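Intended use. Records like the one below are meant for learning the mapping from a protein sequence to its folded structure. Do not use them to infer anything beyond what is encoded.
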Amino acid sequence: MVLVRRCLPSRSAILVGQNVSKDIEWLGLREGEDFKGVVDLCGVWRTWNPKFKTYSVFSQDHLVRRLLKGQLELSEKHCAEGDSVKSMKLFQLWRELHHAPEKLQQEKEKLLEGEPEPSFAKRFPVFEGVCMGNRKTCTCGAPFFG
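Structure written out for the chain above:
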């Protein structure tokens, strides 16, 4: 954890990831001290779902399947390196589209097509001894918001 802190350019680092706040908490990092800001892919790719009249958020693999068709190989195993590549590709796509709302909306609509596969947290409620925060299978007792 100290190594991560030392590697971050604290005044300018923007952390990008899927539900990155959990990683920040786990690493004990502090915004403004260890990094400048955050881009959470769950937030930037959340999509209004008219069927449920609420926003839907999707797993990283669902985002990759729908938005980056054929660009990346998906694996059943959890791999930090592979997840970081997926995160950066999804971030790059969002950066290309976020100034063009119509195009961004078209991409987001692709996310609602078909049935999404269960998220990593649903498939593995506890991973390496850590509760993944799935409401129905939570083992840590942490509060849920929203």
